[in-house]
Design a protein that fits this description.
The protein is α/β, with parallel strands linked by helices. About 50% of the residues lie in helices and about 10% in strands. The protein contains nine helices and six strands; from the N terminus they run ββαβααααββαααβα.
Length: about 220
Amino acid sequence: MKYLAIKQHFNHMKDSDPPGKIIGLTGGIGSGKTTVAHLLQEAGFPVYTSDDRAKDIVNDNPALKEQIQELLGAKAYNEEGKYDRKYVASIVFNNDELLLKLNALIHPAVRKDFESWISFQTTDYLFKETALLFELGLDKECWKSLLVTADDNLRMKRVMDRDGKTYREVENVIEKQMAENEKIKRADFIIYNNSDLSQLRLETEKFLKQLNEFAV
């Protein structure tokens, strides 16, 4: 099994590109995307975790909170005024139109937060972690993209063990996400996470080495 595959014939950076090269980091549920993000941080690279920041922004941004309540109703927030993720998921999971409208509200707020975060970074490479990198077309805003992937059955087992979900529940989530073969076609860098943590660490190191060699 080849754990790290990298597309050939990259386009070189243009003179107009920003000094910090943004690499979009993505992966489907159970792929190990978050673990790779932690490994990159351990290696000294700044990682903006879009999904985690979104969880804070929906609570901390009054204007966004009002917009979400207008779209989904007052129950989108609980009695303590906190975003009710479970309730929201229950009404948008099988409603693609509503989910699209919700993302259209949250994404601009997250993007503004990301742009603010960038202004404080000084490294050559910045990583933007987001589960919907390709689905929302955010890869077009990045210098390159890195996909963390694994065999479907392994991903399902990981999520079942981690979250206590049934096979069918996890299958429903995976079916809602972009197919892995389509993500692989779009990604510039790919890490295959079909083994254990020690192997994933090695593959992440290989990716960083390849990245540095490419930049020379």
